[in-house]
Amino acid sequence: AAPKFSFGAAPAPSGASPAAPKFSFGGTPAAAVAPAAPKFSFGGSPAAVAAPAPASGPAAPTVDDDAAPFEAPETAAPLEDDSETCDLDVRSKLMRLSDGKWNDCGIVVTRLLRDVANPAKRRVVARSTVGVVMLNVAVGSGFQYNESRNKKGGGGGISFRSEKGLVMIKVAKDSLEKLFEAFKKLTE
After folding, report:
1. Residues 132, 137, 138: CA angle, nearest 5 degrees
2. Cβ-based burial of 171 (10 A; exposed 0-12, middle 13-18, buried ≥19)
3. Chain-wide mean pLDDT for the chain?
4. Sign of torsion, CA 79 85 89 94?
5. What are phi and psi of 100, to 5 degrees?
6. Could you tell me how many helices (H) and strands (E) the chain has, helices first?
7. Could you give the CA distance from residue 64 to residue 32 in angstroms, rounded to a whole number?
8. CA-wise closest residue to 111 among 82, 136, 145, 146
9. What 3-state class would DSSP assign to 91?
10. Where is average pLDDT lowest: 13-22, 129-138, 178-187?
11. ∠ at Cα 164 (127, 145), nearest 5°?
């Protein structure tokens, strides 16, 4: 038997096809609707499907999956005052040794700074690309460090002890010699 449920539509004749849906919230019965239109209606005649209107105003932003990832700036913000000179300013990766494994602390800008008034006062500062100080180590006469090169020739770094344990500053191949020379000069 055909369902008796209706919200204002005329009841279907008893000889109607049972395959056609009979549900409607008023308006014309489902059989009178064009085949491309939906068979369910909340009342009235079904709306014609219109082509999308041309956009007026600025286009919506889109996401480009093939776009290059964000590149951090090559150098950090300038020094706040003129009390120190910068012997080295290089983009690098900061690593910390814990539980026998090197942990990546992120991309930083490493600076080797020397006090203008007292050149014996030196320090190594590494800041994240957003300006957070990740490493600030005073360099004295007993400062010891180890140079290392990647076996495949792709760069290397400097490792030394800080107040937070053993750290390594890794740089790309083109900045490696500059890093080695600056640390040698810093510890003289």
Report:
1. 135
2. buried
3. 73
4. negative
5. 75, 5
6. 1, 7
7. 45
8. 136
9. strand
10. 13-22
11. 80
Query: What is the H or E stretch that residue 95 is in?
Result: strand 84-98
Closest to 92 in 3D by CA, of 72, 77, 78 = 72
Cα separation, 91 vs 155, whole angstroms: 13
Cα gap 120→103, rounded to integer Å: 32
Using CA atoms, how far apart are residues 124 and 57, in angstroms rounded to an integer?
A: 51
Q: Return the bridge partners of 123, or none.
A: 113, 138
pLDDT of residue 72: 41
Query: Is residue 150 scored above 90 in pLDDT?
Result: no
Whole-angstrom distance, CA of residue 15 vs CA of residue 37: 24
Question: What is the pTM assigned to this prediction?
Answer: 0.54
Q: What is the pLDDT of residues 119-145, one digit of tens each?
A: 888 889 999 988 899 999 888 777 888
